[in-house]
Amino acid sequence: MNPALTELHDKARAVLDPVHYDFFAGGVGDETVLAGNEAAFRRLALLPRVLRGGEAGSDFPVLISPTAFHKLAHPDGELATARGAGDTVLVSSMASTVPIADVVAAASGPVWFQLYVQPDMAVTEALVRRAEQAGCQALVVTADSPVFGRHRRDLEHGFHDLPAGLAAENMRDLAGVPGLRSIAMSAGVSWEHLGRLRGMTSLPVWVKGILHPADAVVAVEHGVAGIFVSNHGGRQLDVVPASVDALPAVADAVAGRVPVVLDGGVRSGADIALALALGATSVGIGRPVLWGLAADGEAGVRRVLDVLRDEFLHVLTMCGGELTRDMVVTRC
To answer: Which of 221, 224, 267, 223 is nearest to 244 (CA)?
Structure first.
């Protein structure tokens, strides 16, 4: 990880309640995939092209991936994240501790809404309408969560509920039922539900949690606007590959028909460059944003993005201003 990001992580760990730090930092099972997401990048290297006359430009192909419960990290929660994001796309979690309308109001850049399709489609539609009315510009459906992952750290701490005064605010007063609903996971949610979802909104619908190239093809056939290649940050199933290892096959299957976001394990500008060389259109950043938020609020979030932008553009320039798959090699 970039030294500046390591410093933010260490400061975040020092100020966070250890239970809440473990909630953010932890993964499923033995955390094999959690570690593997970062380790997979360390196995890769770039062969730069030289004397190409190419310049890096200023594009920064990064968005902020959805993560839950930001008020566990900072009193302003998702408001600080939205302010710190600047013009970077923020994918705000359905499990936000701030209502989506307030997140959008605090943001200066685009906000997308992450959605778990609920078994009761009336609740799903109410969430969609809430996102539309707030001004969200896209929906991101998380598809890799038929049940909750089993997080050993949370089980050991007995961490099952948010502290008093905090809640998943988007789940209030939905579908004519007052009060707070729980977020439901259901193995019965299918591509048919995704079709119904697309039929109820004009917003672009992305799918997050694709690892198998055949699922990427099905997603494109169902009219998705884009795909997140993601293993949920190592928080759902501990026998899957690292996201970056799954990326090339998915990118090949999609064949440029929709954008592909790589989500999981990105900790440096070099990681961003590697993901783009392997076929990603952009990458999602999760935990580093939480460390910046916990360490220094919106300024910490901004610092994370600034560090990654500077490092990515430097790497891109060193590679001749282009990134292609033939430039990626495996370290001995």
So the answer is: 267
Residue type, 4: A
Strand partners, 261: 228, 282
> Which of 68, 116, 41, 120 is CA-nearest to residue 290?
68
Q: How far is the C-alpha of 175 from the C-alpha of 201, rounded, in Å?
A: 16
CB 205 within 8 A of CB 128: no
CA-based angle 49:55:56, to the nearest 5? 95
Which residue out of 9, 151, 232, 314 is catalytically annotated?
232
| pTM for the full predicted model | 0.96
What pLDDT, in 10s, does the model give residues 92-112? 999 999 999 999 999 999 999
- Is 20 known to be catalytic? no
H-helix segments, the chain: 3-15, 18-25, 32-42, 78-85, 100-106, 121-134, 152-157, 191-199, 213-221, 243-254, 269-277, 287-318
Output the pLDDT for position 146: 85
- Of 285, 248, 279, 281, the C-alpha closest to 263 is 285
Condensed to tens digits (0 to 9), the pLDDT of residues 227-244 reads 999 999 999 999 999 999
Residue 276 to residues 22, 34, 70, 205, Cα–Cα distance (Å): 30, 21, 28, 22
